[in-house]
Design brief:
Number of helices of chain A: 21
CATH superfamily of chain B: NagB/RpiA/CoA transferase-like
CATH topology of the largest domain in chain A: Rossmann fold
Shape of chain B: globular
Oligomer: heterodimer
CATH architecture of chain B: 3-Layer(aba) Sandwich
Number of strands of chain B: 12
Distance between the termini of chain B: 55 Å
Radius of gyration of chain A: 25 Å
CATH architecture of the largest domain in chain A: 3-Layer(aba) Sandwich
Number of strands of chain A: 13
Number of domains of chain A: 2
Bound molecules: iron/sulfur cluster
Strand content of chain B: 15-25%
Largest interface: A-B, 104 and 79 residues
Radius of gyration of chain B: 21 Å
CATH class of the largest domain in chain A: Alpha Beta
Distance between the termini of chain A: 70 Å
CATH class of chain B: Alpha Beta
Structural class of chain B: alpha/beta
CATH topology of chain B: Rossmann fold
Largest sheet of chain B: 6 strands, parallel
Chain lengths: 474, 243
């Protein structure tokens, strides 16, 4: 299934985002706020660094025995009366969910925020099969009504003003003259969605973790929609990437201690829900059927692939907030389900390196993402690898490949470098303005259409350094 | 359709190609979790007032309302006061075994319309509970762990302990005593291990609840009670529950 944003080229998408004043402001306020909250949360946690190291190690150790932990998870869920399904592709995952929906005669499905179901484009498939999917996270609900897509992993509707939300609700929910007070808008959503929760046949969720030892699927939410979706409908389906499994409850609490802090600066999110199969005989509530769909969709080949580290991602969104590129262009411009620095890697994982021939360059490699990441994923390192791959697979324009090959040679040979420097100083004269080159002629024009190139300085660092050395020697 | 064997075989094939990124180990779990949990409980029994103070601070920080009563017989009065302040009458309550005290009669004499959940699980009961929970103003539950570090209450589902009592009514009132207090999430982890090791006839869900339901999805404005309760009250019974 295609991503609607991709009809427009990446350069135009970013151009549009950069021209949107409100989006720029909203992004700035939101990401800055998340950064501050996250920093404060970790300042109050002296053992934060140790916990982050532990979390990273647990993820890596789990990956080293992934088959064993998944085997255990499957056994434990089945022992509790649940069912586990295996989806190699997105198509297969959709077919599994639709099969369950058909067999149980489901007409409506309430969904709790799940990137995995977004990734497999489940909603379109459900609609086509006559099952109405209802997003229940407030942000997701807003963008579903608006027929848009999430722009942030944690705050999907940050690109919308309260006025826009009020208009949207007034129109779509037939509530004319609605105030734009978030309190009132939230109450309206509560009323609308409460009815849906009580009537829904299916509850479809993602999972933040799955604990192998106890067969638990773990959902972390603030609104309570995750609890509703797993308590009220008669069937619960969780769709989860294979990398989300962790061994034990002791491991789980390590992740819980850092996840909410990294995402929203809370010590814990309001609700952490552990689901262990369908409702027990003695319980009055809970689903009669529980299904877990284990999703590959490009993950398994990365166990031994260049993007292995990205399999440790908790989807906390911290790397988005600190990324200078994300902060400027927002989530939509990336064009795929997962935005931001980690989103580029996940997009490559899901759709192959060709899909990120532009995106691989949408990073300044400043390293802020790796610093912010609770599990210390070295995103810049993998981005460089990706760029290399994109280059080798001749996905980049030939002019760029030739230019960088030459540049590589020049940079590693001092004599050539000095020669090029002198040449550059003369050659740049017609193009340089205020210390920057905004347009380079001929074949290189493509490269500077979206970038400014610093002009060669009148006196370079090397020359200044040599001069200093000479002065010191005197 | 991919089978379990095919799926896991593909994973094994990939695992065979790499030794991993670096040597690493998963968490060391308590060898005897039930005993480990008991030790924590005994140690904390002596210094619960400090733990409670911390709980209270954190619980209030996340927007909870804290109450303190001397004995279990004071619970109905505290709950009655909460109800009157909100002009509320309809209350759904966990079975007495889940709360740790039989408060039904007391609540009725406070003027509340009480729907106490039974231990049985018939279809009729199920339907009726759904209807009652969807309209009740208050939900009364017990607490299985109170984590001081973050002001979190942990509730296990099971017979007479519906999941929705702490979810559907706009106001959740939870009753607890010193025996369920722990200091940290790490200690809570030991209890989770112990519960798993003990087994027993519990429900299929465990919920960690940290304050009232909230969202900041519209212009980052913090709003309470989006799907779950707008208010969460914790009633601490100093003299203890369960006799
Ligand atoms: S890469 Fe790290 S910071 Fe980014 S979403 Fe994943 S866990 Fe969070």
């Amino acid at each position: 299934m295609s991503e609607p944003e991709l009809a427009t080229p990446f350069r135009e998408r970013t151009g549009r985002a950069l021209g949107d004043r409100f989006l720029q402001q909203a992004l700035d306020i939101a990401t800055t706020k998340f950064i501050v909250l996250r920093r404060e949360a970790f300042e109050n946690l002296p053992e934060g660094d140790r916990l982050r190291d532990r979390a990273r190690e647990i993820k890596e150790a789990t990956l080293q025995q992934l088959d064993r932990h998944l085997d255990r998870l499957i056994d434990e869920i089945e022992r509790r009366g649940g069912h586990v399904h295996f989806a190699t592709t997105a198509e297969e995952a959709r077919a599994i969910v639709l099969g369950i929906a058909r067999r149980t005669g489901a007409r409506t499905a309430v969904k709790a925020k799940s990137m995995a179901t977004e990734e497999i484009h489940l909603n379109e498939a459900l609609e086509a099969a006559g099952v109405a999917p209802i997003e229940t996270d407030l942000g997701e609900y807003i963008i579903q009504l608006a027929h848009e897509r999430p722009s942030h992993i944690i705050a999907p509707a940050i690109h919308k003003t309260r006025g826009q939300v009020a208009e949207l609700f007034a129109r779509e929910l037939r509530r004319p003259g609605l105030s734009d007070d978030p309190e009132i808008l939230t109450r309206v959503a509560r009323e609308e969605l409460r009815e849906k929760f009580l009537a829904a046949d299916l509850g479809i969720t993602g999972a933040n973790f799955a604990v192998a030892e106890t067969g638990s699927v773990v959902l972390v939410t603030n609104e309570g929609n995750g609890r509703m979706s797993t308590s009220l409908p008669r069937v619960h389906i969780a769709v989860m990437g294979v990398e989300k499994v962790i061994p034990s409850m002791t491991d789980l609490v390590v992740f819980l201690a850092i996840l909410a802090r990294s995402a929203t600066g809370q010590r814990l999110s309001v609700y952490t829900t552990l689901v262990q199969g369908p409702k027990r005989a003695a319980e009055l509530e809970g689903p009669d059927e529980f299904h877990l769909v284990l999703l590959d969709n490009g993950r398994i080949p990365q166990i031994a692939g260049p993007l292995r580290e990205a399999l440790s991602c908790l989807r906390c969104g911290a790397c988005l907030n600190v990324c200078p590129v994300y902060r400027q262009i927002g989530g939509h411009a990336y064009g795929y389900t997962y935005p931001g620095p980690i989103g580029i890697l996940l997009t490559a994982m899901l759709n192959g390196p060709t899909s990120v021939k532009d995106l691989a360059h949408a990073s300044s490699l400043c390293g802020a993402c790796a610093d912010a990441c609770p599990v210390r994923i070295d995103i810049p390192r993998m981005l460089v690898t990706l760029r290399k791959e994109v280059n080798e697979q001749r996905i980049a324009p030939w002019t760029e490949r030739v230019a960088f090959t030459i540049l590589g040679k020049v940079l590693t040979r001092p004599a050539l470098y000095r020669l090029a420097r002198s040449f550059g100083r003369i050659a740049q004269r017609p193009f340089a303005r205020d210390g920057a080159i905004r347009r380079v002629p001929l074949a290189f024009g493509e490269w500077t259409r979206s970038r400014d190139l610093p002009a060669v300085a009148p006196r370079t660092f090397q020359e200044q350094w040599a001069e200093l050395e000479r002065e010191r020697a005197r | 359709m991919t089978t379990r064997a095919q799926f896991l075989d593909r994973i094994r094939a990939e695992m065979g190609k790499t030794r991993g990124s670096f040597p690493s180990r998963v968490s060391e779990r308590p060898a005897r979790p039930v005993e480990a949990a008991d030790i924590i409980r005994r140690q904390l029994a002596e210094r619960w007032p400090d733990t409670l103070e911390r709980f209270r601070t954190e619980f209030e920080r996340v927007g909870g309302v804290f109450h303190r009563v001397a004995t279990a017989s004071d619970i109905p009065r505290a709950v009655g006061a909460i109800a009157r302040e909100r002009d509320a009458r309809d209350l759904v309550a966990w079975h007495a075994a889940g709360i740790g005290a039989d408060v039904e009669a007391g609540l009725v004499s406070e003027g509340l319309a009480v729907r106490a959940v039974s231990l049985g699980a018939t279809d009729a009961e199920r339907r009726e509970l759904r209807a009652a929970s969807a309209t009740a103003a208050l939900g009364l539950t017990g607490v299985d762990l109170a984590i001081a570090e973050m002001g979190t209450m942990v509730l296990r589902s099971g017979a007479g302990r519906p999941r929705s009592t702490s979810l559907l009514p706009p106001c959740h009132v939870a009753v607890f005593d010193p025996s369920v207090l722990v200091e940290s999430l790490e200690q809570a982890g030991v209890f989770l291990e112990a519960w798993h090791a003990e087994g027993g006839d519990w429900g299929a869900m465990i919920n960690f609840i940290t304050g009232p339901s909230r969202t900041a999805d519209i212009e980052l404005t913090l709003t309470r009670g989006v799907h779950g309760p707008k208010e969460v009250h914790a009633v601490f019974v100093e003299g203890g529950l369960r006799g």
